[in-house]
Amino acid sequence: MSRRRQQALSQSAECLETLDPSNEIVKIKSSQGQYLYMVENCRGEEYLVELPRKFRSVAWIKRGGFVVVELLESSDIKIKGNIVQIVRDLKKWRGKEYW
Hints:
InterPro entries: EIF1AD, NA-bd_OB-fold, RNA-binding_domain_S1_IF1, TIF_eIF-1A. This is S1-like domain-containing protein. By secondary structure, the chain is an alpha+beta fold. It has one domain (3-94): CATH 2.40.50.140. The protein has two helices and five strands, in the order αβββββα. It has helices spanning 3-13, 90-94, and strands at residues 23-33, 36-40, 46-50, 66-71, 79-86. Strand 2 and strand 3 (46-50) form a beta hairpin. It starts with a helix and ends in a 5-residue tail after the last helix.
């Protein structure tokens, strides 16, 4: 396994202690192609997010899976945020107070 792949997978395996105000946990609704995903937050809002280069061809995200998204400031563009972390161990994450 390459070093790049090991680093990306170890980052996605870690569980965050706290979430930044600009981050939120969302559910993957569908893949829109070219590393774009339609997601839904806890309020039922749907928007488009992008998978960053460090996770491309390294991690695969299934429909119905959860990810941590960093929301972007500007609202003029179609893409509302970037995926920061992929939730792998759901039991571990659900035990946190921010879930």
